Amino acid sequence: MTVEKKQRYRFSEAPIWELQRAYYxxxxxxxxxxxxxxQYITSNPMIGAAYAEMLFGFLQDRAAKGEHAETVNIVELGxxxxxxxxxxxxxxxxxxxxxxxxxPPFRYVMTDLAGSNVEAWRKHPALQTYIQRGMVDFARFDAxxxxxxxxxxxxxxISKGDLRQPLVIVANYFFDSIPQELLYVGxxxxxxxxxxxxxxxxxxxxxxxxxxxxxxMNYELRHAPEYEADTYPYRxxxxxxxxxxxxxxxxxxxxxxxCLERLNQLSQAGSVLLTADKGDHLLEYWRFLDPPELILHGxxxxxxxxxxxxxxxxxxxxxxxxxxxxxxxENINVGCMLHVDSPQDYVQxxxxxxxxxxxxxxxxxxxxxxxxxxYIDQMGLRQVLSFWRLGGYDAEFFMxxxxxxxxLLEDALDEEKEDLVRGIELMWSSYYVMEQQYDLALxxxxxxxxxxxxxxxxxxxxxxxxxDQEETVSTVYYCLAICCFDLDLEEQAVExxxxxxxxxxxxxEALALLSNFDPE
Length: 520
Description:
TPR repeats lie at residues 474-507. Pfam families: Methyltransf_28. Keywords: Methyltransferase, TPR repeat, Transferase. It comes from Paenibacillus glycanilyticus. The protein has helices at 15-27, 45-64, 83-99, 115-123, 128-132, 208-214, 235-244, 254-264, 308-317, 347-359, 362-372, 381-390, 395-408, 414-429, 440-450, 454-467, 474-486, 490-503, 508-515, and strands spanning 3-9, 72-76, 106-112, 136-140, 149-150, 157-158, 167-172, 181-186, 189-200, 216-223, 248-252, 271-277, 295-297, 301-303, 321-323, 333-339. By secondary structure, the protein is an alpha/beta fold. It folds into two domains: 20-178 and 256-366, Vaccinia Virus protein VP39 (Rossmann fold, 3-Layer(aba) Sandwich), CATH 3.40.50; 377-515, Serine Threonine Protein Phosphatase 5, Tetratricopeptide repeat (Alpha Horseshoe), CATH 1.25.40. The strands form four sheets. It has a seven-stranded mixed sheet, with helices on both faces. Helix 17 packs antiparallel against helix 18. The relative contact order is 0.11. The model has no long low-confidence stretch (mean pLDDT 90).
């Protein structure tokens, strides 16, 4: 595509950031529909459970310090579709109820830049119970500049020093998507890599998505002595880079670090960061690194790599305890950073991280799932059930497995069928409805129908019909009619048969059944 104009910017001030901001504000929650923007890897039941375990451990640690009265606020930055928040709340509430021990109360605050997202979350059916219990609130928050949180439900404003419990910050796919500085280390000196942006032709007539997809970027170096000055707040890590790196391009999270500092100041007791991203905490990753390339998501938005090494160095320099896996990650790096007094005392939090991330965590699960997806047709029912259970009864894996499960039902043992029914119920209880290319209630209802579990099948099939009656196929009405006959709900059965015949007037079986009730 020919270009219209070239302009030079500091990387953190390049128009790509404003275009991304405009895209999310324009699309709202629809940006995540059908995974246009990736969200599964950072919001599936497995990572939700891992975060819930660490939060449960943290609540225990605060209780052990005698801090029972004040509420622990958990603030998610860029909560996106809201799925992670729901998964965490669902699992954390189960852990608290199961343990039955005295813990401080907690409140999960979902934040985003787009006000339309805040309003959509407030109306989402899955969050209503938590809203009523005071366990969830919402705030519009600009991570680049805001210094306080104004909560939509309670009307409360959280300002500097207001909180007595440490603030817990959740940041998934966050640091890779906000402005970063692009530095170049060479010859012991620091340069900024300015970006030369080439816009697509006639950009004023293009959508935000088309502009993002059509932008070309090149880089020119400029010596930046301000990073080497004694007054620069992150001078120590810059000195480390000057001494240890050569011919290396560094994405430096100055805006992200400033955001963490502002949030940390909201509490008198510090903060805890739970975070997952494409980002490395090891210095070796950044050696001889080339300039970054935008990772486009469906041509609509982009992300880069997060510099967890810089965040770790800065927080450790301030006395924090930083936990990352002892092994290299493949898809997503999950960290826990305890920026509190005496962080080593938070034993339950550390143990939860070891169990839920260090030993086998969300990145391991995603790698395993990616491999298993190609072998579902070779799995037995016990293996399908075991992996489904490992993933917290994940709806995506269930949808990928329905054909295989159906093929195995004829030879399934009764106990396997019972486990399948139980799994469907548990899956549905933790399912966060989004616009997807599949109908979970329909697939669950049809499998239950195959197992002759007509009461459960009827409930799920009716949910499917209610969600999208215009797309309902005749098979669903036939199955519903059979369910109703088996449950002695004759009038409902006849009505479903009539709806079936309206869709398919020549359906012989439906007509034969109806003839017993409509002799005319």
